[in-house]
Write a sequence for this structure.
């Protein structure tokens, strides 16, 4: 594990990043090593630093682990005469209370936060349950003669040709896509959770979303910085994001 002593040793660090770090109160390499351990501060760093994304931030975390340890060792390098004597007057009861408090903090930080659920009427909830049952027994549709020619692949294509046995639904032939395999009408187009999906590409796209029945999916072409802005704004509005980054 490498030990970093200055900002310039970090991968992808530029001269302009020094002023950007000082604007959010990070002036030393030790301050940065503490900041990368906090998820909220990591988001703030990605927003503030130009050209820095999650992958580069992960490299910084690996590089800064060694520098964080070196700072903790500096206290051990002080001569024993200069070190303050340890306080041995702590009672066992105080130590136990400290342990209990730390364990409670760990439990609260790792507590499971349930995802938002839609407000569905009885008919829609029944339709979702029926759709799940139908999907479980629906056969796997494969392209005609997918097993014969590897170049065809398994992706479904409707069989063609006047001599096609699969097209005529003859016995011992793979099933063909048919309207009878469809699910209930009330559940069509809904996410498995029951939400109606809405595709967004900007923060303004969240306006007008009904969080009770609608959820958003961030477009694949949206960058990391704008994605974080959309997720933060959606959390303020109580809107569920189906493809959250974190």
């Amino acid at each position: 594990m490498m030990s970093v002593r200055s900002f310039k040793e970090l991968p992808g660090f530029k001269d302009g990043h020094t002023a950007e770090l000082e604007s959010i109160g990070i002036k030393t390499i030790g301050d940065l090593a503490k900041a990368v351990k906090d998820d909220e501060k990591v988001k703030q760093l990605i927003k503030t630093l130009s050209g820095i994304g999650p992958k580069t931030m992960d490299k910084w975390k690996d590089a800064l682990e060694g520098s964080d340890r070196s700072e903790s060792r500096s206290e051990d390098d002080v001569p024993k005469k200069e070190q303050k004597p340890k306080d041995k007057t702590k009672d066992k009861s105080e130590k136990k209370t400290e342990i209990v408090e730390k364990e409670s903090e760990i439990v609260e930080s790792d507590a499971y936060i349930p995802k938002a659920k839609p407000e569905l009427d009885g008919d829609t909830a029944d339709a979702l349950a029926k759709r799940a049952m139908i999907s479980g027994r629906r056969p796997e549709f494969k392209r005609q003669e997918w097993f014969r020619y590897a170049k065809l692949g398994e992706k479904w294509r409707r069989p063609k040709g006047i001599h096609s046995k699969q097209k005529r639904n003859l016995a011992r032939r793979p099933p063909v896509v048919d309207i009878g395999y469809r699910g209930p009408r009330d559940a069509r187009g809904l996410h498995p959770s029951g939400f109606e999906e809405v595709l967004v590409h900007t923060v303004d796209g969240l306006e007008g979303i009904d969080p009770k029945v609608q959820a958003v999916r961030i477009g694949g072409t949206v960058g990391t910085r704008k994605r974080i802005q959309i997720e933060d704004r959606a959390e303020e509005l109580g809107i569920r994001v189906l493809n959250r980054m974190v």
Notes: The two ends are 26 Å apart (CA to CA). Strands lie at 196-200, 214-218.
